[in-house]
Amino acid sequence: MIIELYLYFQNKKELYASISLRILQYIHIRVEHVNKERDLTPVQKVEKLIEAMYDIYDFDPMFIIDMLHLQSSETLINLSPILMIQFEELSRKSIDAISNIFQEGE
Predict the structure, then answer these.
(1) How far from each other are the two terminal CA atoms of the chain, in whole angstroms?
(2) In this predicted model, what pLDDT tens digit does every residue of 13-33 receive, in sequence order?
(3) Residue 5 CA, distance from chain mean position
């Protein structure tokens, strides 16, 4: 079974990064959902964003810490180019989506 896993992933770090990417996709979906709610005030959107982050924390309390560590470590350097591009694009989109929520309140 483990051998079959390594047919898809080069090593443990890539497997972990792939799982983290899925959770990052979930974060992005939640943030985009908040952005699309046009009937909310900027303060309500920030509250919804906080609620989404708490939901993610409840799902896996260490996830946010692990994501920060993952993106600041050499782990990303050793990922396959395709996985690396996915991380960069999704991270950028998520940060932009979060920024949009805060810019509405200016």
Answers:
(1) 53
(2) 777 777 778 888 888 898 999
(3) 23
pLDDT at 51: 92
How many angstroms separate the CA atoms of 30 and 32, rounded? 5
Determine phi and psi for 32, rounding to 5 degrees: -65, -35
What is the SS3 assignment for 51?
helix
Dist CA 73 CA 39 (whole Å) = 40
**Distance between CA 31 and CA 28 in Å, rounded?**
5
Domain of residue 57: give its range.
Answer: 2-104
- Please answer whether residues 100 and 32 qualify as being in contact, where contact means their C-beta atoms are separated by less than 8 angstroms: no
pLDDT, tens only, 30-80? 899 998 998 999 899 999 989 988 888 887 777 767 766 666 666 667 777
Q: How many domains does the chain have?
A: 1
The one-letter amino acid at 56: I
